[in-house]
Amino acid sequence: MGLRPFEDVITTHGPTVLRVCRAMLGYHEAEDAWAETFLAALRAYPDLDPKANVEAWLVTIAKHKAIDSHRATGRNPQPVEAVPEGVGRGGTTIEDIDELWSALKSLSSKQREAVVYHHLAGLPYAEVASILGSTEAAARRAAADGVKRLRGIYEGATP
Amino acid sequence: MSTTQNEASENGGADDLFAALPVVDQAASERLHAKLASRADADQLVDVAYRTIDTPVGQLLLAATAEGLVRVAFARQGHDAALASLAEKVSPRILAAPGRLDTVAREMDEYFAGARTRFDLPLDRRLTTGFRRQVLAHLPDIAYGDTASYAAVARLAGNPKAVRAVGTACATNPLPVVVPCHRVVRSDGTPGGYAGGQAAKRILLALESP
Predict the structure, then answer these.
(1) Cβ-Cβ contacts under 8 Å for A39 (sequence gap 6 or more)
(2) Cβ of B42 under 8 Å from any chain A Cβ?
(3) B129 to chain A, minimum CA–CA distance in Å?
(4) Cβ atoms of residues B52 and B36 within 8 Å
(5) What is the pLDDT of residues B134-179, one digit of tens each?
(6) How distant is the Cα of B19 from the closest Cα of chain A, in angstroms?
(7) Predicted ipTM?
């Protein structure tokens, strides 16, 4: 079996990569990072090993695009210009997304990435470890610490 | 995937932490897809662009390379199978990017409305080779509203004995409707087989009959 049509890759992984970008960059920067990620992926696609984990490959590209975006924006939250409106089901708004993003920003980058790649993107720890350049055990620990910290932030925030 | 979910549930799960992020944001997905398609097109990264159209012979898949229309597929042939085959034979850089197919779609609409008797489109014939390609090259010689027998087409293609090969060439025509294999019929006047099904062949012949 060779590579699937790239359109299938977008259909299958596009929504997850968007969630990853939103978690790493906030609502507004996420869309550019998503487009940059898939454009770079499309460029490199014919050389991808057909047996590769496509989601891990995309998340790796998204990580680099997120770093580029952080550099460009100096890591500061971008002011939300538009009046927040519903962006999806369940009453989630741009504000909700940016609130999550702010909470994630208080984690160390390793914790944040481990939490997002494992719990949000659903990548196994072996893949998370290879993206982070660490061991599987370290990735597991970083994710656990990150989740604990996030829960602390959320519980602290609720009266 | 199941191991991933097991791993997550072993950790007590953290899905609730990401409740703010919609699992699927349809509006954003469509907006981003359009943006990606136009940027990819500008960067010449779309090796095969495709779209579908609704016609009297069912939904047709239209796919084009930078060179021209490369594939037309009937629903019964399986659009996913046609795209998978393009990924293998042409390139996996395949995108639903309707812009490149605007002219094709317009000419198809005109044809099915009876307002067009020939297609004026650049074609990419790379999916057929050898004798089949030779056979298909002769099909536009059969005029709109006319038909020819498989034997007559074999003579036209310069190999009168290759009647069966003509049948195969028509059955595997990657550009049906545009390259008119539906005008090739049996010697007794019955339509014969068709990649889009006999009913589709009858509809096309009826549409073209004066």
Answers:
(1) B36, B39, B40, B43, B45
(2) no
(3) 22
(4) no
(5) 999 999 999 999 999 999 999 999 999 999 999 999 999 999 999 9
(6) 8
(7) 0.89
